[in-house]
Amino acid sequence: MTSEFTPKQEAIVKSIRRRKRNKLPLYSSNVNGQSGTCDRTLYEAAIRHFGSWPQAIEIAGFDYAKINRIGMGHRKHKNAKEVIAAIQKRKEKKLPMNAGYVNLGPDRDRTLYSSARREYGHWANAVKAAGYNYNLIKKETIVEYKRKVRTFGTRQDIIDAIQKRKKGKLPLHLNGVNRGKDANRTLYQSAVRDFGSWTQAVKAAGYSEKDIAQTRKRRANVYPTAQLVLQELRRRDRKDLPLTSVEVYKGKKHRDPALCIAARKFYLRWHVALMAAGILDLAGNPITKKPDR
Q1: Domain extent listing, the chain
Q2: What is the pLDDT of residues 232-262, one digit of tens each?
Q3: What is the per-residue pLDDT across 196-228, written as a single tens digit (0 to 9) for each?
Q4: DSSP per residue, the chain
């Protein structure tokens, strides 16, 4: 191959010739299609580096006119009339009609997309030729499609899901829906989208703020008195368990968030509670361990 080609162009030409040797189709609707022999990466690279697929074929040493005649016999949509019929059928099924969805979306039809461009130059032109306002129909079908694929496509779906949570005794408060093992962020986001807020969605489902509060799983008050807090601190000190507030509140082992909360409730500061328990002196230094009082 001549040196006038870049390494990437040489690689593209070699790939085209390899397809030919392997008796794979070279017409554009196959290479850029959805069949098992398609190679969209090669097709797009050829257009990017040679300007068009036919140009790349010619540079690789093949007669594209002959290849194209072979492809015409395999076309799903052989002419403009068949393209129009396929677009109208797609519209009847309420599938998205914008170019991005037809070419790349979950309900894509690349063969139709390529055929439309072949016959009309652009997908939008083909849609207009089928009798539709492209800008309007694009918006309508995308909205309808998103509604169809959403887990909670309507307000009633959201209300039903909230009522199901209540019957299943799952939390309805914000943190319970957003976090933890019983979380359902999809439901939460759908509720905010359609009702403006999670609270409004819960109210629409027939529940009050009191009902929401009742679904909170409150922990038992393990340390109802200051004396119990001091006893637990001294026990941890005797056992050489962690006594820093971070380790007690968030540590991986021997954590006890309730102790932290209770200590701050009765003594305002963690280190003050340690002083009251006789673990730290007034200067904040550790002192000799004392027996439990």
Answers
A1: 7-74, 80-149, 155-214, 220-293
A2: 999 998 988 888 888 888 887 888 888 998 9
A3: 888 899 999 998 877 777 655 555 578 889 999
A4: --TTS-HHHHHHHHHHHHHHHTT---SHHHHTSSSTT--HHHHHHHHHHHSSHHHHHHHTT--HHHHHHHHHHH-SS-SHHHHHHHHHHHHHTT---SHHHHHHSTT--HHHHHHHHHHHSSHHHHHHHTT--HHHHHHHHHHHHHHHHSTT-SHHHHHHHHHHHHHTT---SHHHHHSSTT--HHHHHHHHHHHSSHHHHHHHTT--HHHHHHT--PPP-S--SHHHHHHHHHHHHHTT---SHHHHHH-SSS--HHHHHHHHHHHSSHHHHHHHTTSB-TTS-B-------
- d(CA 37, CA 26) in angstroms, rounded, equals 10
Q: For 39-51, what is each residue's pLDDT tens digit?
A: 888 999 999 999 9
Q: What is the spatial distance between Cα 61 and Cα 64, in angstroms, rounded to a whole number?
A: 9
